[in-house]
Design brief:
Oligomer: heterodimer
Order of helices and strands of chain A: EEEEE
Number of strands of chain A: 5
Shape of chain B: globular
Radius of gyration of chain B: 19 Å
CATH architecture of the largest domain in chain B: 2-Layer Sandwich
Strand content of chain A: 35-45%
CATH architecture of chain A: Single Sheet
Order of helices and strands of chain B: EHEEHEHHEHEEHHEEEEHEEHH
Strand content of chain B: 25-35%
Helix content of chain A: under 10%
Distance between the termini of chain B: 10 Å
Number of helices of chain A: 0
Structural class of chain A: mainly beta
CATH superfamily of the largest domain in chain B: ATP-grasp fold, B domain
Strand order of the largest sheet of chain B: 11-10-9-12-13
Number of domains of chain A: 1
Helix content of chain B: 25-40%
CATH topology of chain A: Rubrerythrin, domain 2
Distance between the termini of chain A: 43 Å
Strand order of the largest sheet of chain A: 3-4-5
Number of strands of chain B: 13
CATH class of the largest domain in chain B: Alpha Beta
Number of domains of chain B: 3
Structural class of chain B: alpha+beta
Largest sheet of chain A: 3 strands, antiparallel
CATH class of chain A: Mainly Beta
Shape of chain A: globular
CATH topology of the largest domain in chain B: D-amino Acid Aminotransferase, Chain A, domain 1
Largest interface: A-B, 13 and 27 residues
Chain lengths: ~60, ~280
């Protein structure tokens, strides 16, 4: 049984990353530098990642 | 197939389930970054592909502003800008609900140390100090003793901006427990009681405290119905405190989390939300 794997590069520490299926808007933690990364786009199995804050200062409705 | 924008800064547990439920009910729900819309142009090109917008921003700044700009471009928005603006300001919400004869906790608006001293003199301890803008239990402070209260206010005065210093002082009700009611449209989908787990007096759902299912009795249904009458149909998390005189409305969340409530309910909350979205966009 094969599982689709997506790949990308941490924009901060340039570590190569692989993830199970994930959609734009979801976040993950870089295993190397531990920053929170958001998937901005997926193109042909390649993730475009952006570093985001763990929480924003004005979260809370 | 109708296409709805799910506007948020990221997809979390709730948004993942909403997107999955939409796919199973012939509705397309797509994430749109709430920090990359650049709204303002009359036709709102960033929202041109969508039949409606569902605001799930966790930010109390972005949600109401985006809803206002989207409505100005004639894009249907859930919740409405008016509802979001009311919910994101605890003073506005209480004023609206009180004007509609809905029970809310007694409170005093505190904009200065003089206000704070007057509130302490007028209301009996213990009291709760909470920011007018904000949520998830952040900076909500229990004041048990008058002699430490003034020191607590030193920290409020040190906050950088008057916007952040605006606060309410209110009686500490129901021993730190609350009832969260999840509403879609006019339907009370689920309700759960939250109680402090012991390490933190606050019972906020975002703080991970103990929760259990609550029967949806006529008193809860009546008060929820009355809140929806004031705010209009929408998707809400309505927080109630129980008092000896009945329930009072503490606050209403316009983009409510529902993970903890879902744990206590046999009802499928994401599907209830998606059905409401279908109704609104049909």
């Amino acid at each position: 049984m094969s599982t689709t794997v997506l790949t990308g590069v941490c924009p901060e520490c340039e570590t190569d990353l692989t993830t199970p299926p994930i959609v734009p808007g979801e976040t993950l933690s870089c295993p190397e530098c531990l920053l929170t990364l958001r998937v901005d786009d997926i193109d042909d199995g390649r993730l475009r990642l952006r570093m985001v804050e763990v929480t924003l200062r004005d979260w809370g409705q | 197939m109708r296409h709805v924008a799910l506007v948020a800064d990221r997809i979390g547990w709730e948004e993942r389930r909403l997107i999955a439920a939409a796919g199973a009910h012939d509705l397309r729900l797509s994430w749109v970054d709430d920090g990359a819309l650049c709204l303002g142009a009359p036709a709102a090109p960033a929202l041109g592909d969508f039949d409606a917008v569902m605001i799930r921003s966790r930010s109390y700044t972005r949600g109401g502003l985006i809803a206002t700009a989207a409505e100005a471009a004639r894009v249907p928005v859930l919740n409405t800008a008016a509802a979001i603006h009311a919910c994101e300001n605890k003073l506005s919400l209480r004023a609206l609900l009180r004007a509609a004869d809905l029970p809310v906790p007694d409170f005093r608006l505190v904009l200065s140390r003089a206000d704070f001293a007057a509130a302490l003199a007028e209301l009996p301890l213990p009291l709760v100090l909470k920011p007018v803008f904000g949520g998830m239990g952040k900076r909500v402070t229990l004041l048990r003793d008058a002699d430490t209260a003034q020191s607590v206010y030193d920290y409020v005065e040190d906050l950088g901006h008057g916007f952040e210093q605006a606060a309410l002082v209110e009686p500490f009700l129901d021993g730190g427990s609350s009832v969260r009611c999840f509403v879609a449209g006019r339907q009370l989908v689920a309700s759960a009681s939250f109680r402090s787990a012991g390490g933190d007096w606050r019972s906020n759902a975002a703080l991970g405290n103990r929760h259990r299912r609550v029967a949806q009795g006529p008193e809860i249904s009546k008060i929820v119905d009355a809140v929806v009458d004031v705010l209009g149909e929408g998707i809400y998390g309505i927080d109630l405190f129980e008092t000896p005189d009945g329930f009072v409305v503490n606050e209403v969340n316009h983009a409510p989390a529902f993970r903890a409530v879902a744990d206590t309910s046999e009802l499928d909350i994401p599907t209830a939300v998606v059905r409401y979205l279908q109704e609104v966009t049909s």
